Amino acid sequence: MATKKDIVVIPGDGVGTEVMDAALAVLDVVQNKYNYDFTYHQALAGGIATDTVGVPLPDETLDKAKKADAILFGAVGGPKWDNHPPHLRPEQALLGLRKALGLFSNLRPIVLFSGLEDSSSLKAEVIQGVDFVVVRELTGGIYFGEKQRQKDNNGYEYASDVLLYHEHEIERIVRLAFQMAQNRKKQLTSVDKANVLESSRLWRAVVDRVKTDYPDVTVEHMLVDNCAMQLVRRPASFDVIVTENMFGDILSDEAAILTGSIGMLPSASLGEGTLGFYEPVHGSAPDIAGLGIANPTAMILSMAMMLRHSFQDEKAASDVEKAVEKVVHMGYRTQDTKVDSDKTLTTMQFAEKVASLI
Ligand code: NAI
Ligand code: MG
Protein backbone atom coordinates (compact mmCIF):
# COMPACT_ATOMS: atom_id res chain seq x y z
CA MET A 1 0.00 0.00 0.00
CA ALA A 2 1.28 3.39 -0.96
CA THR A 3 1.66 5.90 1.87
CA LYS A 4 -0.77 8.78 1.43
CA LYS A 5 0.41 12.32 2.08
CA ASP A 6 -1.30 15.67 1.61
CA ILE A 7 1.18 18.31 0.52
CA VAL A 8 0.21 21.95 0.25
CA VAL A 9 2.11 23.58 -2.59
CA ILE A 10 2.57 27.35 -2.44
CA PRO A 11 4.77 28.52 -5.33
CA GLY A 12 4.35 32.24 -4.54
CA ASP A 13 6.03 34.89 -6.70
CA GLY A 14 8.99 35.30 -9.04
CA VAL A 15 11.34 32.31 -9.23
CA GLY A 16 9.18 30.65 -6.56
CA THR A 17 6.99 29.16 -9.29
CA GLU A 18 9.98 28.02 -11.35
CA VAL A 19 11.86 26.27 -8.56
CA MET A 20 8.60 24.73 -7.33
CA ASP A 21 7.86 23.17 -10.72
CA ALA A 22 11.40 21.79 -10.73
CA ALA A 23 11.14 20.33 -7.21
CA LEU A 24 7.78 18.73 -8.00
CA ALA A 25 9.33 17.03 -11.02
CA VAL A 26 11.79 15.41 -8.60
CA LEU A 27 9.07 14.67 -6.05
CA ASP A 28 7.05 12.81 -8.70
CA VAL A 29 9.96 10.42 -9.09
CA VAL A 30 10.24 10.04 -5.30
CA GLN A 31 6.52 9.19 -5.19
CA ASN A 32 6.93 6.27 -7.57
CA LYS A 33 10.23 5.01 -6.29
CA TYR A 34 9.37 5.04 -2.57
CA ASN A 35 5.72 4.06 -2.91
CA TYR A 36 3.91 7.22 -1.90
CA ASP A 37 0.54 8.54 -2.93
CA PHE A 38 0.93 12.31 -2.82
CA THR A 39 -1.93 14.75 -3.23
CA TYR A 40 -0.69 18.21 -4.14
CA HIS A 41 -2.98 20.99 -2.91
CA GLN A 42 -2.09 24.17 -4.77
CA ALA A 43 -2.52 27.34 -2.69
CA LEU A 44 -2.00 31.06 -3.13
CA ALA A 45 0.20 33.32 -1.02
CA GLY A 46 2.26 36.47 -1.44
CA GLY A 47 1.96 39.11 -4.13
CA ILE A 48 0.00 36.87 -6.47
CA ALA A 49 -2.57 36.33 -3.69
CA THR A 50 -2.87 40.06 -3.06
CA ASP A 51 -3.39 40.60 -6.79
CA THR A 52 -6.04 37.93 -7.20
CA VAL A 53 -7.93 37.82 -3.89
CA GLY A 54 -6.83 41.03 -2.14
CA VAL A 55 -4.77 39.64 0.76
CA PRO A 56 -1.28 38.06 0.93
CA LEU A 57 -2.49 35.11 3.02
CA PRO A 58 -6.03 34.02 2.07
CA ASP A 59 -8.02 32.04 4.69
CA GLU A 60 -8.32 29.23 2.20
CA THR A 61 -4.53 28.85 2.11
CA LEU A 62 -4.32 28.84 5.89
CA ASP A 63 -7.08 26.21 6.14
CA LYS A 64 -5.35 23.97 3.62
CA ALA A 65 -2.02 24.39 5.43
CA LYS A 66 -3.48 23.43 8.80
CA LYS A 67 -4.85 20.17 7.40
CA ALA A 68 -1.73 19.19 5.47
CA ASP A 69 1.06 16.73 6.25
CA ALA A 70 3.61 19.22 4.93
CA ILE A 71 3.88 22.54 3.13
CA LEU A 72 6.22 23.33 0.27
CA PHE A 73 6.73 27.06 -0.18
CA GLY A 74 8.60 28.82 -3.01
CA ALA A 75 9.21 32.50 -2.34
CA VAL A 76 7.15 35.66 -2.11
CA GLY A 77 7.63 39.33 -2.88
CA GLY A 78 8.90 41.58 -5.60
CA PRO A 79 9.12 45.24 -6.59
CA LYS A 80 5.49 45.30 -7.70
CA TRP A 81 4.32 45.02 -4.07
CA ASP A 82 7.08 47.00 -2.33
CA ASN A 83 4.87 50.04 -1.80
CA HIS A 84 1.90 48.16 -0.40
CA PRO A 85 0.95 49.00 3.21
CA PRO A 86 2.51 46.64 5.80
CA HIS A 87 -0.55 44.37 6.19
CA LEU A 88 -0.70 43.79 2.43
CA ARG A 89 2.99 43.09 1.95
CA PRO A 90 3.80 39.60 0.63
CA GLU A 91 5.98 38.63 3.64
CA GLN A 92 2.86 38.82 5.82
CA ALA A 93 2.03 35.46 4.28
CA LEU A 94 5.18 33.92 5.75
CA LEU A 95 4.80 35.46 9.20
CA GLY A 96 1.11 34.54 9.28
CA LEU A 97 1.75 30.91 8.34
CA ARG A 98 4.60 30.48 10.84
CA LYS A 99 2.52 31.89 13.63
CA ALA A 100 -0.75 30.11 12.83
CA LEU A 101 1.03 26.76 12.47
CA GLY A 102 3.16 27.20 15.62
CA LEU A 103 6.42 26.75 13.71
CA PHE A 104 8.87 27.70 16.45
CA SER A 105 12.06 26.41 14.88
CA ASN A 106 13.90 27.14 11.68
CA LEU A 107 16.56 24.71 10.49
CA ARG A 108 19.17 25.72 7.97
CA PRO A 109 21.70 23.08 6.99
CA ILE A 110 24.90 24.56 5.58
CA VAL A 111 26.82 22.02 3.53
CA LEU A 112 29.67 22.49 1.11
CA PHE A 113 29.12 20.46 -2.02
CA SER A 114 32.25 18.99 -3.48
CA GLY A 115 33.06 20.95 -6.63
CA LEU A 116 31.69 24.25 -5.33
CA GLU A 117 34.73 25.26 -3.26
CA ASP A 118 35.46 28.03 -5.74
CA SER A 119 31.99 29.58 -5.48
CA SER A 120 32.63 30.65 -1.89
CA SER A 121 34.03 34.01 -0.87
CA LEU A 122 36.25 32.16 1.62
CA LYS A 123 39.39 30.17 0.81
CA ALA A 124 38.79 26.57 -0.20
CA GLU A 125 40.86 25.27 2.75
CA VAL A 126 38.69 27.20 5.23
CA ILE A 127 35.37 25.88 3.96
CA GLN A 128 36.57 22.35 3.27
CA GLY A 129 34.29 19.96 5.19
CA VAL A 130 31.67 22.52 6.19
CA ASP A 131 28.57 20.61 7.32
CA PHE A 132 26.51 22.15 10.09
CA VAL A 133 22.98 23.25 10.84
CA VAL A 134 21.71 26.46 12.36
CA VAL A 135 18.64 25.99 14.56
CA ARG A 136 16.94 29.33 15.01
CA GLU A 137 14.07 30.08 17.40
CA LEU A 138 11.34 31.52 15.21
CA THR A 139 8.32 32.71 17.17
CA GLY A 140 9.74 34.51 20.21
CA GLY A 141 12.29 37.14 21.15
CA ILE A 142 12.62 40.72 20.08
CA TYR A 143 10.75 40.37 16.76
CA PHE A 144 7.59 39.52 18.66
CA GLY A 145 8.08 41.56 21.85
CA GLU A 146 6.15 44.72 22.66
CA LYS A 147 7.07 47.70 20.49
CA GLN A 148 6.75 51.36 21.40
CA ARG A 149 7.49 54.69 19.84
CA GLN A 150 6.82 57.88 21.81
CA LYS A 151 7.99 61.40 22.47
CA ASP A 152 9.67 62.39 25.74
CA ASN A 153 8.93 65.63 27.62
CA ASN A 154 11.39 67.53 25.45
CA GLY A 155 9.66 66.38 22.29
CA TYR A 156 12.39 63.91 21.32
CA GLU A 157 11.27 60.56 20.03
CA TYR A 158 12.22 57.29 21.69
CA ALA A 159 11.48 53.72 20.72
CA SER A 160 11.79 50.30 22.31
CA ASP A 161 11.54 46.64 21.34
CA VAL A 162 11.22 44.04 24.07
CA LEU A 163 13.33 40.87 23.98
CA LEU A 164 11.35 38.35 25.98
CA TYR A 165 11.65 34.58 26.31
CA HIS A 166 9.69 32.15 28.46
CA GLU A 167 11.52 29.13 29.78
CA HIS A 168 9.28 26.71 27.85
CA GLU A 169 9.98 28.54 24.58
CA ILE A 170 13.70 28.08 25.14
CA GLU A 171 13.40 24.50 26.30
CA ARG A 172 11.48 23.21 23.27
CA ILE A 173 13.93 24.63 20.73
CA VAL A 174 16.96 23.56 22.77
CA ARG A 175 15.63 20.00 23.04
CA LEU A 176 15.11 19.89 19.29
CA ALA A 177 18.70 21.02 18.78
CA PHE A 178 20.02 18.38 21.21
CA GLN A 179 18.09 15.69 19.33
CA MET A 180 19.52 16.88 16.04
CA ALA A 181 23.02 16.84 17.49
CA GLN A 182 22.47 13.28 18.71
CA ASN A 183 21.81 12.24 15.11
CA ARG A 184 24.86 14.09 13.83
CA LYS A 185 28.34 14.74 15.26
CA LYS A 186 26.97 15.14 18.83
CA GLN A 187 28.30 18.63 19.23
CA LEU A 188 26.02 21.53 20.18
CA THR A 189 26.97 25.20 20.21
CA SER A 190 24.47 27.37 22.07
CA VAL A 191 24.82 31.02 21.09
CA ASP A 192 23.77 33.89 23.34
CA LYS A 193 24.88 37.20 24.81
CA ALA A 194 24.85 36.10 28.43
CA ASN A 195 27.44 38.69 29.46
CA VAL A 196 24.84 41.46 29.01
CA LEU A 197 21.34 40.09 28.37
CA GLU A 198 19.14 38.62 31.09
CA SER A 199 17.17 36.64 28.49
CA SER A 200 20.48 35.06 27.45
CA ARG A 201 21.29 34.13 31.05
CA LEU A 202 17.96 32.29 31.22
CA TRP A 203 18.73 30.69 27.84
CA ARG A 204 22.08 29.44 29.15
CA ALA A 205 20.54 28.09 32.36
CA VAL A 206 17.94 26.14 30.37
CA VAL A 207 20.64 24.64 28.12
CA ASP A 208 22.64 23.57 31.17
CA ARG A 209 19.58 21.97 32.79
CA VAL A 210 18.42 20.18 29.62
CA LYS A 211 21.87 18.85 28.71
CA THR A 212 21.77 16.21 31.46
CA ASP A 213 19.14 14.43 29.32
CA TYR A 214 21.59 14.23 26.42
CA PRO A 215 24.83 13.04 28.05
CA ASP A 216 26.33 11.95 24.74
CA VAL A 217 26.20 15.49 23.32
CA THR A 218 29.05 17.93 23.99
CA VAL A 219 27.80 21.46 24.68
CA GLU A 220 29.65 24.68 24.18
CA HIS A 221 28.27 28.15 25.02
CA MET A 222 29.42 30.89 22.70
CA LEU A 223 28.77 34.62 22.70
CA VAL A 224 27.10 35.78 19.52
CA ASP A 225 29.83 38.23 18.50
CA ASN A 226 32.43 35.52 18.86
CA CYS A 227 30.25 33.10 16.89
CA ALA A 228 30.03 35.61 14.04
CA MET A 229 33.84 35.53 13.87
CA GLN A 230 34.25 31.77 14.27
CA LEU A 231 31.77 31.14 11.44
CA VAL A 232 34.16 32.67 8.96
CA ARG A 233 37.35 31.59 10.75
CA ARG A 234 36.68 27.90 11.30
CA PRO A 235 33.22 27.07 9.90
CA ALA A 236 34.04 23.38 9.51
CA SER A 237 34.29 22.95 13.29
CA PHE A 238 30.54 23.44 13.90
CA ASP A 239 27.89 20.73 14.04
CA VAL A 240 24.62 22.14 15.46
CA ILE A 241 24.22 25.79 16.42
CA VAL A 242 21.14 26.77 18.44
CA THR A 243 20.16 30.35 19.13
CA GLU A 244 17.36 32.84 19.66
CA ASN A 245 15.40 34.53 16.89
CA MET A 246 17.37 37.67 16.00
CA PHE A 247 20.83 36.17 16.53
CA GLY A 248 19.69 33.23 14.41
CA ASP A 249 18.42 35.50 11.66
CA ILE A 250 21.77 37.25 11.38
CA LEU A 251 24.03 34.22 11.86
CA SER A 252 22.08 32.05 9.45
CA ASP A 253 22.41 34.66 6.72
CA GLU A 254 26.13 34.92 7.44
CA ALA A 255 26.37 31.14 7.30
CA ALA A 256 24.40 31.09 4.06
CA ILE A 257 27.16 32.77 2.09
CA LEU A 258 29.89 30.37 3.25
CA THR A 259 29.20 27.68 0.71
CA GLY A 260 28.56 29.58 -2.48
CA SER A 261 25.22 30.43 -4.03
CA ILE A 262 22.11 31.25 -2.01
CA GLY A 263 20.37 29.12 -4.61
CA MET A 264 21.79 26.02 -2.86
CA LEU A 265 20.31 26.49 0.61
CA PRO A 266 17.18 24.80 1.94
CA SER A 267 15.30 25.36 5.17
CA ALA A 268 12.66 23.74 7.31
CA SER A 269 10.39 25.32 9.89
CA LEU A 270 8.99 22.89 12.43
CA GLY A 271 6.61 22.92 15.38
CA GLU A 272 5.58 20.32 17.96
CA GLY A 273 4.21 17.68 15.59
CA THR A 274 5.38 16.40 12.23
CA LEU A 275 3.80 19.22 10.20
CA GLY A 276 6.60 21.19 8.60
CA PHE A 277 7.07 24.13 6.31
CA TYR A 278 9.82 23.78 3.71
CA GLU A 279 11.24 26.63 1.67
CA PRO A 280 14.45 27.75 0.04
CA VAL A 281 16.45 30.40 1.91
CA HIS A 282 16.43 32.69 -1.11
CA GLY A 283 13.68 35.12 -2.10
CA SER A 284 11.76 35.60 -5.34
CA ALA A 285 14.86 36.82 -7.26
CA PRO A 286 12.99 39.34 -9.44
CA ASP A 287 16.18 40.04 -11.42
CA ILE A 288 16.13 36.54 -12.95
CA ALA A 289 12.45 35.61 -12.61
CA GLY A 290 10.83 34.22 -15.74
CA LEU A 291 14.13 33.34 -17.42
CA GLY A 292 14.15 29.68 -16.39
CA ILE A 293 17.70 29.92 -15.05
CA ALA A 294 17.13 29.91 -11.26
CA ASN A 295 18.97 27.27 -9.29
CA PRO A 296 16.34 24.77 -8.07
CA THR A 297 18.72 23.08 -5.59
CA ALA A 298 17.48 24.98 -2.52
CA MET A 299 13.87 24.00 -3.27
CA ILE A 300 14.78 20.39 -4.06
CA LEU A 301 16.80 20.07 -0.84
CA SER A 302 13.92 21.66 1.08
CA MET A 303 11.71 18.94 -0.34
CA ALA A 304 14.27 16.38 0.89
CA MET A 305 13.99 17.92 4.37
CA MET A 306 10.24 17.38 4.13
CA LEU A 307 10.82 13.68 3.48
CA ARG A 308 13.12 13.52 6.51
CA HIS A 309 11.29 15.62 9.09
CA SER A 310 7.60 15.33 8.17
CA PHE A 311 7.54 11.85 6.61
CA GLN A 312 10.39 10.37 8.70
CA ASP A 313 11.85 8.88 5.52
CA GLU A 314 15.59 9.19 5.97
CA LYS A 315 16.29 6.89 3.02
CA ALA A 316 14.33 8.91 0.47
CA ALA A 317 15.68 12.18 1.89
CA SER A 318 19.31 11.16 1.68
CA ASP A 319 18.83 9.63 -1.78
CA VAL A 320 17.56 12.99 -3.05
CA GLU A 321 20.51 14.75 -1.39
CA LYS A 322 22.97 12.28 -2.89
CA ALA A 323 21.46 12.77 -6.34
CA VAL A 324 21.93 16.54 -6.06
CA GLU A 325 25.51 16.06 -4.88
CA LYS A 326 26.20 13.77 -7.81
CA VAL A 327 24.80 16.22 -10.36
CA VAL A 328 26.97 19.00 -8.92
CA HIS A 329 29.97 16.71 -8.75
CA MET A 330 29.47 15.80 -12.44
CA GLY A 331 29.97 19.49 -13.14
CA TYR A 332 26.40 20.46 -14.01
CA ARG A 333 25.43 23.93 -12.86
CA THR A 334 22.83 26.61 -13.16
CA GLN A 335 24.20 30.03 -14.04
CA ASP A 336 24.66 31.26 -10.47
CA THR A 337 27.37 28.64 -9.89
CA LYS A 338 28.55 28.07 -13.42
CA VAL A 339 31.96 26.68 -14.25
CA ASP A 340 31.75 25.18 -17.66
CA SER A 341 29.40 26.63 -20.26
CA ASP A 342 28.52 23.34 -21.93
CA LYS A 343 27.35 22.03 -18.55
CA THR A 344 25.14 25.00 -17.74
CA LEU A 345 21.56 23.86 -17.32
CA THR A 346 18.18 25.55 -17.04
CA THR A 347 16.12 25.19 -13.86
CA MET A 348 14.09 22.30 -15.27
CA GLN A 349 17.04 20.54 -16.92
CA PHE A 350 18.88 20.57 -13.59
CA ALA A 351 15.86 19.07 -11.83
CA GLU A 352 15.52 16.41 -14.51
CA LYS A 353 19.17 15.43 -14.04
CA VAL A 354 18.58 15.07 -10.30
CA ALA A 355 15.39 13.08 -10.90
CA SER A 356 17.19 10.73 -13.29
CA LEU A 357 19.75 9.83 -10.60
CA ILE A 358 17.25 8.91 -7.87
P1 NAI B 1 16.74 37.11 -3.34
O1 NAI B 1 17.15 35.92 -2.56
O2 NAI B 1 15.45 37.01 -4.06
O3 NAI B 1 17.88 37.45 -4.42
C1 NAI B 1 19.21 37.79 -4.05
C2 NAI B 1 20.16 37.48 -5.22
O4 NAI B 1 20.34 36.07 -5.30
C3 NAI B 1 19.63 37.92 -6.57
O5 NAI B 1 20.70 38.36 -7.36
C4 NAI B 1 19.04 36.66 -7.15
O6 NAI B 1 19.05 36.62 -8.56
C5 NAI B 1 19.93 35.59 -6.57
N1 NAI B 1 19.17 34.35 -6.38
C6 NAI B 1 18.22 34.13 -5.46
N2 NAI B 1 17.70 32.90 -5.58
C7 NAI B 1 18.36 32.33 -6.62
C8 NAI B 1 18.27 31.05 -7.25
N3 NAI B 1 17.41 30.10 -6.85
N4 NAI B 1 19.11 30.81 -8.27
C9 NAI B 1 19.99 31.73 -8.70
N5 NAI B 1 20.11 32.95 -8.15
C10 NAI B 1 19.29 33.25 -7.12
O7 NAI B 1 16.73 38.35 -2.33
P2 NAI B 1 16.31 39.87 -2.59
O8 NAI B 1 16.74 40.29 -3.94
O9 NAI B 1 16.79 40.58 -1.41
O10 NAI B 1 14.73 39.88 -2.53
C11 NAI B 1 13.88 39.80 -3.67
C12 NAI B 1 12.44 39.68 -3.20
O11 NAI B 1 12.26 38.47 -2.49
C13 NAI B 1 12.02 40.80 -2.25
O12 NAI B 1 10.69 41.15 -2.56
C14 NAI B 1 12.11 40.15 -0.88
O13 NAI B 1 11.23 40.72 0.03
C15 NAI B 1 11.70 38.73 -1.21
N6 NAI B 1 12.23 37.74 -0.27
C16 NAI B 1 11.41 36.69 0.02
C17 NAI B 1 11.84 35.68 0.84
C18 NAI B 1 10.92 34.55 1.07
O14 NAI B 1 9.94 34.39 0.36
N7 NAI B 1 11.20 33.70 2.02
C19 NAI B 1 13.17 35.68 1.46
C20 NAI B 1 13.99 36.79 1.03
C21 NAI B 1 13.52 37.78 0.20
MG1 MG C 1 17.22 37.06 7.27
Automatic annotation (TrEMBL):
Pathway where it operates: Amino-acid biosynthesis; L-leucine biosynthesis; L-leucine from 3-methyl-2-oxobutanoate: step 3/4
Enzyme Commission number(s) of this protein: 1.1.1.85
Cofactor note as given: Binds 1 Mg(2+) or Mn(2+) ion per subunit.
UniProt: substrate binding residues: 98, 108, 136, 225
Keyword Oxidoreductase: yes
Pfam families: Iso_dh
Subcellular location(s) of the protein: Cytoplasm
Top-level class of the enzyme under EC nomenclature: oxidoreductase
SUPFAM superfamilies in the record: Isocitrate/Isopropylmalate dehydrogenase-like
GO MF, any single term: NAD binding
Residue intervals of the Isopropylmalate dehydrogenase-like domain: 6-354
Catalytic activity: (2R,3S)-3-isopropylmalate + NAD(+) = 4-methyl-2-oxopentanoate + CO2 + NADH
Site feature location: Important for catalysis: 143, 193
Keyword Plastid recorded: no
Description of how the protein assembles with itself and partners: Homodimer.
Family: Belongs to the isocitrate and isopropylmalate dehydrogenases family. LeuB type 1 subfamily.
Role noted for this protein: Catalyzes the oxidation of 3-carboxy-2-hydroxy-4-methylpentanoate (3-isopropylmalate) to 3-carboxy-4-methyl-2-oxopentanoate. The product decarboxylates to 4-methyl-2 oxopentanoate.
UniProt protein name: 3-isopropylmalate dehydrogenase
Organism (species): Shimazuella alba
